[in-house]
């Protein structure tokens, strides 16, 4: 009964519920960046690299699910759309957990390049971060509406309109995140990356 009442309250007040969840997310991220949440272990370089690769994989699968969900709703395949979008949202929660552990453990690094490419990287990174921040309440609102309303009820809400903005910003943010990851870890950080893998290669030869 308590669960039913809670769901009813969220359904009746989706904006308030979305605002609360968004603020909690912002507090968690900002608290981690500011070092106010001393709950993360200090990470070694190999662990940082592993987390970076895991995050990239999660984001790639999330982007794939997001684009599939977008295509399915345009075809009127509501069940597939719902499954794809919930998969994408679940993966973003996984991404957030991995990213906070990485940042909280001191796992940030700079790209090994200068000149125009460096500034292009910074622009893409800035847009990625900005869209990630701005998209949070919009994405959460779309998800809250989707979880608390039936397909017929959703037609009377702003779900479709908000969802288009949420999916667009979310997809672009994920795509830019993947591109900047590739630049940082594989295109302009190849030597550094190979040096980090050297101990593993040595162990494998023994």
From TrEMBL:
Keyword Aminoacyl-tRNA synthetase: no
InterPro entries in UniProt: DUF420
Transmembrane segments: 16-38, 50-70, 82-101, 121-144, 165-184
Pfam family, one: DUF420
Keywords: Membrane, Transmembrane, Transmembrane helix
UniProt-listed PANTHER family: DUF420 DOMAIN-CONTAINING PROTEIN, HYPOTHETICAL MEMBRANE SPANNING PROTEIN
Stated name of the protein: DUF420 domain-containing protein
Organism: Halorussus caseinilyticus
Lineage: Archaea, Methanobacteriati, Methanobacteriota, Stenosarchaea group, Halobacteria
